[in-house]
């Protein structure tokens, strides 16, 4: 009889809840601050919200190492865009960049669940979410997620 080992996985789901609510001229993004693995709470003070541009914010849950790698890559590409065009990237442009980045990594995807929101150039709301598995099959699909918020202490409101 051979001893069976649990299957090894390069991913760990650190949990989390992120939500975005958009209105006519505002977008509110909120996320919880707890990071856990399995039944262990690693910290209760971890920000899942990242400001990508002046009017664009991304909240991400999932495997936090992949989330940080994705945030760094988007920040670097936004900086390159700023140097080439001498202006901030718009929120719909950032959503397209996020979609293209997730599609590019579709064979070994970032294990992150992303909600991107903010204001477009006209000051209108823009919110959109991306899942790595659905981005594998439908890279330009906009998914509307209604997530239950049990515990959140952090939020960001963009309003003109």
Short description:
This protein is of the alpha+beta class and 160 residues long.
What would you note in describing this structure?
The chain is α+β, with helices and mostly antiparallel strands. The protein has one domain: Aminohydrolase, N-terminal nucleophile (Ntn) domain (Glutamine Phosphoribosylpyrophosphate, subunit 1, domain 1), CATH 3.60.20.10. It is built from three helices and nine strands. It has a four-stranded antiparallel beta sheet with strand order 5-6-7-8. The chain has a three-stranded antiparallel beta sheet with strand order 1-2-9, with no helix packed on it. A hairpin with a 3-residue loop joins strand 1 (18-22) and strand 2. The protein starts with 17 loop residues before the first strand and ends with a strand. It comes from Citrus sinensis (Sweet orange). This is Proteasome subunit beta type-1. Keywords: Proteasome.
């Amino acid at each position: 009889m051979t001893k069976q080992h649990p299957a090894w996985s390069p991913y760990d789901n650190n949990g989390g809840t992120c939500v975005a609510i958009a209105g006519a001229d505002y977008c509110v993004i909120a996320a919880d601050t707890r990071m856990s693995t399995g039944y262990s709470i690693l910290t209760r003070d971890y920000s899942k919200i990242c400001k990508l541009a002046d009017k664009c914010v991304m909240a991400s849950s999932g495997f936090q190492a992949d989330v940080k790698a994705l945030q760094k890559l988007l920040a670097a590409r936004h900086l390159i865009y700023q140097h080439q065009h001498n202006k901030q990237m718009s929120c719909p442009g950032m959503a397209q960049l996020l979609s293209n980045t997730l599609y590019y990594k579709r064979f070994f995807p970032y294990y992150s669940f992303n909600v991107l929101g903010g204001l477009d150039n006209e000051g209108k709301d823009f919110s959109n979410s991306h899942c790595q598995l659905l981005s594998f099959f439908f890279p330009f699909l906009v998914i509307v997620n209604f997530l239950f918020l049990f515990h959140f202490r952090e939020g960001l409101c963009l309003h003109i």
